[in-house]
Design goal:
It is a single chain. It contains ten helices and 16 strands. Strands 5-8-2-1-11-15-16-14 form an eight-stranded mixed beta sheet, sandwiched between helices. The chain has a two-stranded antiparallel ribbon with strand order 3-4. The longest helix has 24 residues. By secondary structure, it is an alpha/beta fold. Helix 4 crosses helix 5, helix 7 runs parallel beside helix 9 and helix 8 runs antiparallel to helix 9.
Length: 293
């Protein structure tokens, strides 16, 4: 068989391998938390948007929740301020909040544009729209860190309306408190809360690491699949630290609240989303309900 024919058959095999997954997740909601390096590199950005658009076109109902941390820090620097973080959360005074909302709005519409260039209708909103995200002031170890919000309520009606009208919703993590003050929200928290509220089948975190390690310094301790209860045990036993700790807490909390499966993927790998969802192998870490293991 000549080389060209072999390649064509390989493509057919790939498509056939994807078929059961396409059937299984047809009409299911998938929430993608988009952040990290995959946001700052134009090529990776385009790859991610292509992946999500493809998911939409084969019958999934994706919702993107995006951050904008590096871009916000860049603009905060432009006005001569120093970005300050406490336990991974951005200290947000009134001026920083104004900059964050402006930057997130800019990022939001750039993602809408990329999706629409690929022929899919997208709509960008923030957690303020339609009362999507209500928050209260979040404290970090008792310390006041400014306009940082803890989500108290999610009203997903606006998202259902958009999905029903065949739009791909793209959400910026900004919300209002009961006095209609604006707050910045950690994008992981926003994605997790939205996934629970819409009963998402999958929640995917695009990050800057390959997935979950039992020991971050030992590359052989990579975990490709783990039960939610085992993930909780890793946390309780002190194996998980740093920025992965709140992320993993979000993952297990999502599963306990009805999300079927949570994926932690390396957003720096081109088309990681398709590789994880449509292949038997997968490439990141999947956290699954105990009864599904």
């Amino acid at each position: 068989m000549d080389k060209d024919m072999e390649q064509v058959l390989k493509k057919a095999e790939v498509l056939i391998e994807a078929l059961p997954y396409i059937q299984k997740f047809n009409r299911k909601i998938i929430v993608v938390k988009y952040g990290g390096s995959a946001m700052s590199n134009e090529e990776l950005k385009r790859n991610v948007i292509q992946d999500v658009t493809l998911l939409k076109l084969v019958g999934f109902k994706p919702i993107i929740v995006h951050g904008g941390g590096k871009e916000i820090s860049r603009w905060v620097g432009k006005v001569g301020k120093e970005a300050e973080f406490v336990n991974g959360l951005r200290v947000t005074d009134a001026e920083t909040m104004e900059i964050a909302e402006m930057v997130l709005g800019k990022v939001n519409k750039s993602l809408v544009t990329l999706v629409q260039e690929l022929g899919v209708k997208a709509m960008g909103i923030s957690g303020k729209d339609g009362g999507l995200l209500t928050v209260e002031k979040k404290y970090s170890d008792g310390k006041d860190i400014g306009y940082v919000g803890e989500i108290t309520k999610v009203d997903p009606k606006i998202l259902y309306d958009m999905l029903e009208k065949d739009f791909l919703p793209i959400v910026a993590p900004v919300g209002l408190d009961e006095n209609f003050e604006t707050y910045n929200i950690n994008a992981d928290d926003a994605a997790c809360a939205i996934a629970k509220a819409v009963g998402a089948d999958k929640l995917v975190f695009l990050t800057d690491i390959e997935g979950l390690y039992k020991d971050i310094n030992d590359k052989n301790s990579f975990i490709s699949r783990i039960k939610a209860s085992d993930a909780d045990k890793l946390i309780a036993d002190g194996f998980i630290g740093g920025g992965m700790l709140p992320k993993l807490n979000n993952c297990t909390s999502a599963i306990q609240n009805g999300v079927n499966r949570v994926h932690i993927l390396d957003g720096r790998i081109p088309h990681c989303l398709l590789l994880e969802i449509f292949t038997d192998q997968g490439i990141g870490t999947a956290i699954i309900r105990d009864e599904d293991m």
